[in-house]
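During the no-cost extension, the postdoctoral fellow (Dr. R.K.) reprocessed legacy sequence entries with the updated structure-token encoder. One reprocessed record is reproduced below for audit purposes.
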Amino acid sequence: MTSKASSPRVLPGRRGSNRAAKADRHELYELSVQAPESDAATLARLFKRLRKRDAMSMREDFCGTAALSSAWVRSKEGRTAVGIDLDQPTMDWGLAHRIEPHGPDVARRLELIRANVLDGAGPKVDLAAGLNFSYCILHERRDLLAYFKAARRKLVDDGVFMLDVFGGWESMQPQTNVRKVPDGFTYRWEQRSFDPLTHHIVCSICFDFRDGSSIEDAFHYDWRLWTSPELRDVLLEAGFSEVHLMWERTNAKGEGTGAFYEPKKDVENQDSWWTYIVAER
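Re-encoded structure tokens follow.
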């Protein structure tokens, strides 16, 4: 999760009940959209496929609560991580809820730095990741290029940089997607506007509860929806030697595996899709 301007509005439910007022929006976000242990395993697997060795150090750009960084250091003895974000309160929440509860060894191997990702803060690492489409807060190509150059500078010689990207024709139109979460609430993703000339997209995450209460605009996003070829071209301009556009591997029934991704040169478009882009230093 990245730093993002948001003004959550808590609306009461029936007869004054208000589960929303008691809920923690960071907890709700992680329950709804994150799978840090799975993400850490996938990143490690993609790195090892390319480099034939284990990645031991990772930087999580736009780290938010640092859930991915925490999962990374806990996934293998000796692994280290550094999280970069501008939102200190969110990082403080992550420290209290996602790092310190796992003990001093995890806290010792995980550093949080309040900084702009364009500044290239922190040590060099094997693997850098900018997930959850956080780089989309960079609307101008020059800023995206500056970010990718900074990310490359902070990789070891055989380092790898990974992003995720989403698209499909539904990503370019206003819509609302609703999904029930097993923990007793509903996740609501609202795409409120899309400009085809600039790819400026405005979205929000909201949460609804069984008592009728809700959190409106729990997280608000003012993004540019970057396309895969744009990202590939800017990564190459930033100096990366190879850029792989990945696609989810399917089984014999054509169903997604949910964990294995491979490079593709062309695929059929879908109403919505999500995948990784992997760049070699």
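The radius of gyration is 19 Å. The helical segments are 19-22, 25-33, 36-51, 67-75, 88-99, 104-108, 141-153, 228-237. The remaining legacy entries will be reprocessed before the final report is submitted.
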